[in-house]
Amino acid sequence: MKDMSEFPQKTDGETRDTTPAFVYATRRDWAGYFEVTQGRPPRDTLLHALELFSQEANDRTRFAVDLGCGEGRDTAELLRQGWKVHAIDGHPDGLTRLMHRDDHDAMERLTMQLASLERVELPKCDLLNASFSLPFCAPDHFEAMWGRIVDAIDVGGRFSGQLFGDRDSWASIPDRSHFTRNQIEALLAPFEIELLKEEEREGQDCSGVSKHWHVFHIVARKK
Ligand SMILES: C[S@@+](CC[C@H](N)C(=O)[O-])C[C@H]1O[C@@H](n2cnc3c(N)ncnc32)[C@H](O)[C@@H]1O
Q: What pLDDT sits at residue 104?
């Protein structure tokens, strides 16, 4: 699996903004985050889950929830691969950008919802994808939200996405949800783990501000 380093710097030459996306995510500046990540490819955790689904017999249109979909890099891939998708985000700009994407032609298979991680009710699904969004759930709501995620996924369905570790720099920000490896393994008890990749590394923005990354990349099948 290729490097899943996250929040990279935008380098396509079309923008003057070379700020790494993590700087925007640190301060929850989602409009800025979407601007610098617009058009990036789908996440490897999603692609891994889709590859596993493709190896299983199926005669119907599968249904995914993309929780914290942002501007829709994963939703667009799901649509391209023939899935129905319910895309949820707490920021209207992400959903507006998703609506105007031109890299899929399947609006009839897409529904969108403006909602918070803390309160959203989740429909039953084959796949619950949450790429780099769950650490932004308020800690006092995380347990209930994770319970709703587990309940939403059908037996044999999958979770794909990230949870953040206790050694990540953002763990000291009071409104973030971070976990030890043991805690993450406990959260994944209702699943058969298909991928659990722990990534730990140093990152830096252009002005030298450093960030320690501690991220768990997850694909797991509901038992
Ligand atoms: C780091 S971005 C990830 C976006 C996208 N999934 C991706 O992989 O690029 C986090 C996303 O979570 C959303 N988000 C953050 N906190 C949220 C909350 N409390 N409720 C709903 N969405 C939230 C943001 O609007 C943003 O789109």
A: 87
